[in-house]
Every structure is written in C-alpha cells, then in structure tokens.
C-alpha cells in the first residue's frame, strides 16, 4: 500500500481511511503517536540494511535456574528438610550399628 505524497502531517481520519486495516507490512516510517497507536497495531521493528531486512525471532531462552521454577519456595524448603531428616536417620542407623557391634 502506498501513501502518495504523504506528509508528516496526517490526521487520524486520513490515516484510518488510507490504512483501512488491510496492510500486513509497511515499508515507510511511521512515527508512533498516541492517535496512531489506537489505529494501527504497531509490532516489532525490523532491522533494515542496504540489502537485507532481518528480524530476530523470539524463542525460548535457556535459564540457569529453570529447574527451580516449577516448584514454590515452600516445596523446596520441604525437600531440604526431608533430605536433612533422611541424612540424620542414615547417620543414626550407622552409629547404632557401630555401637551394637562394638558392645558384642
């Protein structure tokens, strides 16, 4: 869609009638004003070079703490408490066997 002789001063009504919500891509520069914001769905900017147009596709970013996020803080606290309790039980059983065999 071309805007013939489009100056920087365009009313919102002119912009609405010229655009008519049928444009997927515009190769011209539009300043983002409050009026145009409500008329047009402005998306991500595209990087333009002399010969190429590129857009970085959003994707999943690896997160180093991704294994922590599925559970809440209280669940992790219970896991830690259970681990400490199991460790204490193992140590107590080992010490009781040592004491039992030492006395025999």
Biggest sheet overview: 2 strands, antiparallel
Helix content: 40-55%
Q: Order of strands in the sheet with the most strands?
A: 1-2
Query: What's the SSE pattern?
Result: HHEEH
Tally of alpha and pi helices: 3
Rounded radius of gyration (Å): 33 Å
Structural class: mainly alpha
Overall outline: rod-shaped
Distance between the termini: 96 Å
Low-pLDDT ranges: none
- Strand proportion: under 5%
Please, what is the oligomeric state? single chain
Number of strands: 2
The average pLDDT is 74
Summed up, the domain count is 2
Q: Can you lay out the helices and strands and say which pair or pack?
A:
Blueprint: H1 12-19, H2 34-39, E1 47-48, E2 53-54, H3 73-103
Keywords: Membrane, Transmembrane, Transmembrane helix
Transmembrane segments: 75-100
Offer a concise description of the structure:
The chain has 104 residues and is mainly alpha-helical. It has helices spanning 12-19, 34-39, 73-103; strands at residues 47-48, 53-54.
């Amino acid at each position: 869609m071309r805007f013939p002789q489009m100056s920087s001063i365009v009313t919102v009504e002119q912009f609405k009638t010229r655009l008519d919500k049928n444009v997927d891509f515009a190769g011209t520069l539009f300043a983002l004003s409050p009026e145009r914001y409500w008329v047009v769905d402005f998306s991500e900017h595209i990087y333009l070079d002399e010969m190429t147009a590129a857009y970085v596709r959003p994707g999943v970013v690896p997160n180093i703490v991704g294994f922590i996020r599925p559970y809440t803080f209280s669940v992790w606290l219970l896991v830690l408490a259970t681990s400490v309790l199991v460790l204490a039980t193992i140590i107590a059983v080992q010490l009781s066997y040592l004491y039992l065999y030492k006395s025999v």
